[in-house]
Design a protein that fits this description.
alpha/beta; six-stranded mixed beta sheet; three-stranded mixed beta sheet; 11 helices; 9 strands; disordered N terminus
Length: 282
């Protein structure tokens, strides 16, 4: 992995995107078996692994494959290049080519990915370096274990650009860090460090970037050595005690409603133009 960008600088998600077509186009998610662990690597490094429909589809397929393969006892989720995932691909959002139905499908894909991570019987470890923002933070927080590099930065900036979170985060985050902390993170959109995440009980471990992958793999190997049937039932029991269905149902409604507003378009434009948005409540 290469070094993360300057933590105080805005992540650059405006680099030219790959063609995404042709037989030699890179797959958006790399899949590799390492013993009993399946390593899934988000693979759009030229876009800092910003999510799009193709990435979501490929990740869902890989997660299904991990559950169907009895030899896979743990999943390790990470990102190629300088970041884990900087969230939605704003360039594709700003292009304005998505219909209302396209938006609905895209939003539902994001929900489906996070729901599958949270509810699959196979434990999921997220190894986060660089930035994990928006949809990237949703993927990381959906995982059962979060291992972060010391210089990693996470955050939920949706409110600052007129959009909304997904992935059941309005339900999951308060359970992990408490309502007071979750309110600060979601309404103020402030980024936080690995050390803060560890202090709040959100991260399992925080390590130097150079040892991130090895640390996450050791944790994955430890989980892979546990009794798989017990693990699956234990994970299900933890989430069954407090159903998340309401959040998964209402978050897409709120996000899709915001996507029809002038403020949403202004937030996307301001992000791309690196200026403060001017919201009008319309």
């Amino acid at each position: 992995m290469t070094d993360s960008p300057d933590p105080d600088a805005e992540p650059d998600a405006t680099a030219p995107a790959g063609t995404g077509t042709g037989d030699d186009a890179p797959t958006p998610v790399l899949v590799e078996r390492r013993g009993s662990t399946m390593v899934l690597t988000l693979n759009r490094p030229e876009r800092l692994n910003a999510v799009n429909e193709e990435l979501y589809h490929t990740l869902i397929a890989a997660l299904r494959m991990s559950e169907a393969d009895s030899r896979v006892r743990c999943v390790l989720l990470t990102g190629a290049g300088r970041a884990f995932c900087v969230g939605a691909d704003m360039k594709e959002h700003r292009a304005g080519t998505r219909t209302a139905q396209d938006r609905q499908r895209y939003v539902q894909l994001g929900q489906d990915v996070c729901r599958r991570i949270q509810t699959c019987t196979t434990p999921v470890v997220a190894a986060v370096h660089g930035y994990a923002l928006g949809a990237g933070a949703e993927l990381a927080v959906s995982s059962d274990f979060l291992v972060m590099a010391e210089d990693a930065r996470m955050g939920f900036p949706e409110v600052s650009i007129g959009t909304f979170v997904g992935g059941g985060i309005t339900h999951r985050l308060p359970r992990l860090v408490g309502l007071r902390r979750a309110t600060d993170l979601l309404l103020l959109g402030e980024r936080f460090t690995g050390t803060q995440a560890l202090d709040w009980g959100l991260a399992h471990a925080v390590v130097p970037g150079a040892t991130l992958h090895d640390t996450a793999m050791k944790l994955a190997d430890r989980l892979a050595g546990q009794a798989p049937l017990s693990l699956g039932r234990m994970k299900a029991a933890l989430y069954r005690a407090d159903p998340v269905d309401t959040a998964f149902r209402t978050e897409p409604r709120d996000l899709l409603a915001l996507m029809e507003t002038e403020d949403w378009a202004e937030g996307i434009a301001a992000f791309a133009e690196r200026r403060a948005p001017v919201f009008r409540g319309k």
